[in-house]
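Protocol step 4 of 6: structure prediction from sequence.
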Amino acid sequence: MRRTFLALSVLAPLMVSGVASADPAPRETGSLTAWTFTGREPVPVNRADIAVTPCETKQAVAKLVTGADGRATIALPAGCYEVKVVTVPGGCGLAVTEPVRVTVTAGSPARADFRFGCA
C-alpha cells in the first residue's frame, strides 16, 4: 500500500505537469530567397528592399535587403507568400511591378526572381 501511495505521489505530478505544459507542434519551416538581377547575363542588384507577406493577409512578416550577390534569404513557416520589391535602387527600374507568389514547403527552398533594368 505504501509503495502504491509513493508511486502515485511521485508520478501523478509528473503526468499532470507533462500534459499541462505540452507545446503545440511547431509548424514546419522552409526558406525563401529573393533574387534581384539585371541583364541577359544576370548581374546582381544590390540593396533592393523586399517585403514578404502571407497570401491570406496584407501585413508584411519580413522586410529584406538584397546583398552584393543580389540575394536575400529568410526561413519561414510553410505556406503561401507574396514577395514584392518595395524600394528600387537608384538608376534602376523594375521590369514587372506585381508581387511574386511563392509556396514555401518544409525543408525546401523557394525563390522569387526580380529582373531590373539599370542604367
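Step 5 (inspection) to follow. The chain has one domain: 29-118.
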